Amino acid sequence: xxxxxxxxxxxxxxxxxxxxxxxxxxxxxxxxxxxxxxxxxxxxxxxxxxxxxxxxxxxxxxxxxxxxxxxxxxxxxxxxxxxxxxxxxxxxxxxxxxxxxxxxxxxxxxxxxxxxxxxxxxxxxxxxxxxxxxxxxxxxxxxxxxxxxxxxxxxxxxxxxxxxxxxxxxxxxxxxxxxxxxxxxxxxxxxxxxxxxxxxxxxxxxxxxxxxxxxxxxxxxxxxxxxxxxxxxxxxxxxxxxxxxxxxxxxxxxxxxxxxxxxxxxxxxxxxxxxxxxxxxxxxxxxxxxxxxxxxxxxxxxxxxxxxxxxxxxxxxxxxxxxxxxxxxxxxxxxxxxxxxxxxxxxxxxxxxxxxxxxxxxxxxxxxx
Length: 369
Hints:
single chain, alpha/beta, Rossmann fold, 2 domains, eight-stranded mixed β-sheet, six-stranded parallel β-sheet, 41% helix, globular
């Protein structure tokens, strides 16, 4: 059994984003492929070792402060040195500049894998300062994994490290999602109606939700938004200003309620318009549940999950008119929506099942060992 330590700036239950979902899937499915994985992350709560999460454990290090969305924890440097000594291999999740420092301060020279989740898009001025450390860090790890061929080919950073990049698409295990009883389904039917588009994700600047709100003006299409984040208050205020009674902000929901809403939804809309959205695990969940999808074409992994005219519709980024037209097209053509949803499910089964991802990572670990 290969012992792997995952290192990232946050993890469940503190946050529930796409990267956390990827790490969770890798840890939960690892034993079936000969991998025993643990997670070290930084938390606003006090430090604690060996906290059970599902069928694996996590270790949290208390955060001291935060700089430009980069949590800093002096305890994490100590914890990382100790835990990496006990691991056979260290698996980093990029980007998190503080992690680079931890890499160079740890004493052991264990094999290293880095999953490249996203280019740094927003903090362009800070990127100029960080760039020398970033390139040294990326140059020092043994292997870099990109989640899609399209993102790898279009990334201005990854092109410098083509000799060590490997593409492994993310995957999901349907069996790790809870079953939903009829009462819960009926509750949500009564609460949000029986025909609606669904969005699930953190409410962040790159999710394109302001364009979704503008697309809904003067329409009767209903949209349910699941998730929380720094843009939540601004988006709710904008929905009021645009007089959109057809938008429901539900905040963060349990896994059971999320599954219920996925099952009930008519289609899935995911208008991320910037390359900070490198893949879209929520989008992959929609495909797993057989939902037609609407996305923006930004040259990311979203284009591998949602193929225009096959599994859903794709529109230009930051274009409310194009987004509205795509939504109306699905809304008014239920036969087409059902067909695209079936094909989305077929594509998930063929390419994005967790076993495919887990086996590829296990093979990579063994090759580095």
